[in-house]
Amino acid sequence: MAAVLGTRLLVFVRSNHSIRINRVIYWSDSEVTLAWIRSEHRRYRPFVACRVGEILSSSNVNDWRYVPSKLNVSDEATKWGNGPCLSASGRWFNGPTFLQLPEEEWPMPKRSLATTDEELRACHLHQEVLILRTPIVYERFSNWNRLLHATAYVIRFGTFRNQKGTKGSISLTHEELKAAEILLWKLIQSEVYPDELTILTKNKTVPICERLILEKSSTLRMLTPMLDDEGVLRVDSRISAAQGVAEDVKFPVILPRKHHVTNLIVDNFHRKLLHGNSETVVNEIRQRFYIAHLRTVVRGIEKRCQWCKVMKAKPSTPRMGPIPEARLSPGVRPFTYIGIDYFGPILVKVNRSAAKRWVCQITCLTIRAVHVEVAYDLSTKSCIACIRRFICRRGSPKEIYSDNGRNFTGAERILQDQIERIEQDAATTFTNTETKWLFIPPSCPHMGGSWERMVRSIKNAMKSIPQDDKLDDEGLQTVLVEAEGIVNSRPLTYLPLDSAEREAFTPNHFILGSSSGVVQPITKLKDSANELNASWNLVQKRIDHFWRRWVREYLPTLTKRTKWVEETKPVQPGDLVIVIDDSRRNGWIRGRIVEVTPGSDGRIRQALVQTSSGLFRRPVSKLAVLAVDGLGEIDGSIHSHGEGNVGTITAPATRPTAPSL
What we know:
This protein is an alpha/beta fold.
């Protein structure tokens, strides 16, 4: 800009001054500016080119001279702190002293000012690169072997077309497949690495000292690539002197990681190794190919593999649901809400033979007390007998929870007819009660965890009781009742030794009035009416005290979720699933969800699954959703996973289901 202003000032002076000026010399201490003026100004960017053109339109190149900054008089007004010297003998009016010397002694620049790289215009070079093309569209193939064979047939067609009259076999030879494989490698390399191939092709015809190097931006620069005799791009590794090693191991073929053909090759190794460990696939691929970020590519193939999706499908358990009202009802009679389960068999002596007996365990869902009965078999009749004995001793329950055992489902139907007869034999207090039987979904033990856990407690208590090797029916009954007493006397909550409470809180406090059932001896009543009233009030006060402790000490322990705390994607009707069956190995069946059942919190907890064997109601924790593309067709062939196909069956009437306990 200073040079432009100088030329404009001279034009103004000449046009407004009568004195004729024969010669003009422009002085500048900017070597870059002088280089711009002396060079071809069209080589620079528009800002510089336009101003250099304006300067040259009103001045000559030879009129511009260089002056060092220390001899530049104009700098006194701008760069030096004291300002210019305005005396008549100063440089400001007389100019620098070298002007009084011959022109040959004027200052000269230390280096040539012919050109400079400052503000150069970008130069775009056009380079023609030969990219091989093929009539085959890679994206139409989802299998490497099919693409390889199709390419081999294309090569054969071209060969037969050029050599008319040639006949060959229909099946492909090893040489044809090898040629097709090399051609595919060269095709994808020419698409992704055209610049590198051009440079390496030129380097093969020139001496080593004149060879070009790859650009720093090239992704292959650190691999020191080379071209083999077939024109395939390979890694020029450092193990070329290794003996007994295949050439592909010494010089692996370079393949681009994001190309469709590369994915097909990796998928072929994945299938050839039977969908095995990813590290095995990585190791086998590295014996022939170099693929950047190979492990990432292999993991991507595994995620897209439909077979792996099916075989590695896992159920997505919804967040742990809220506890039902049956376990959170203070003030109710013990065993108002119960859960029934069986365990066994247990061998007992009957005369000189051995017989099997089962244990029917009935758990109070509210106070966590247990009641055990001996079942002589697993029939519905035996189950009804156990429930009748229980009701006669503990009273009629309001709700009964159980799993879907056949003896329970039969007992539910018969219980409606038998309950009136049982109530007539029991105390009159329970003559008008109504019992409701609820079932948890099949294969869902965690929904009945409140009574399933008590099964283990009863078994542990039975192991701690001294007993003979072989019990008879009477001995088994005794052991079970003792185990029942041990379990019912266990503390429900943790009680510190320095607590103000005298004893821990147990289920027996609600059943017997204390943890061990020991009470004060009966005293003679003096005034029957007053004493009875006082005793009744005392009993009610003790019961209220127990329930207050239950609410204060036990209920807060149920608030925390111990697992399944994250939200999951709910299943939907129409989802294809695998029904997980822990009792069967390698035989899980497929099905399609036809109906879902939400829990009390609105989350899907159960589903009705349609399979080839019928309709099954299963919890969501036993259903693994399959992310199947289409209708199960993979690479043109139908893959079956599990047994049978999904059939069309009319849904049966559903029984009442229970929430997770």
